Amino acid sequence: MKIIADKGWVLTESENVSLDKRTFRDMVIVAANEVSKWKQISIEEKTAMEAKAALFVNKDMTADYLASVRTLIAGVKNSINDVSLSDEEVLQNAELYPKFDESIGQPVNQGYKFNCDGSMYEVEVPHTISVEMRPVQTPVMLMATSEASENKINYYRLITK
Predict the structure, then answer these.
(1) Ranges of H-type helices in the chain
(2) How confident is the prediction for the chain on average, in pLDDT?
(3) For residues 38 and 67, is the Cβ–Cβ distance under 8 A?
(4) Which in 15, 36, 45, 116 has the greatest CB count within 10 A?
């Protein structure tokens, strides 16, 4: 039986095959009982699988390799705020965002996200991050209000699900 991938798609094994053994084809000829062993995936999925394989397949955990991984993570931290993600996606990738202490002294715009003490925050008011402006989670007081608390500027929004 001949299986042909649609335009913009490729065929690959439907089973859980290791990245170094996975194949991608435009067409396969198989017996009728082997049709279920193949699935069609998009070119984007293929590219992602190949990129993952390039990063992880047959890599020795040497000091040089680990230095490359650190460089990659640093690059992600420097540019992750340029990517538009939902709050849920931000929380799933919290470890890739800059930490508050790493951002001290940096001017930030609305939308900048960072990790502080295990919580994710988004800047609501542009400012320069300083130690004095560290986000603090305090209990809400329902009865007591003061003029000072009413005029308080919320520089950050706690990101939750």
Answers:
(1) 43-56, 63-79, 87-92, 100-103, 147-150
(2) 88
(3) no
(4) 116
Does this model's pTM top 0.85? My answer is no
Give the closest residue to 68 by CA, choosing from 49, 52, 53, 55.
55
Q: Which two tokens stand for residue 97?
A: 């965002």
- Provide the sign of the torsion angle of the four alpha carbons 20, 46, 78, 122, taken in this order: negative
Token output for 67: 């230095």
Q: What are the beta bridge partners of residue 25? A: 11
Q: Which of 58-62, 75-79, 122-126 has the lowest mean pLDDT?
A: 58-62
Q: What are phi and psi of 81, to 5 degrees?
A: -75, -5
In 3D space, the residue among 20, 19, 31, 36 whose CA is nearest the CA of residue 11 turns out to be 36
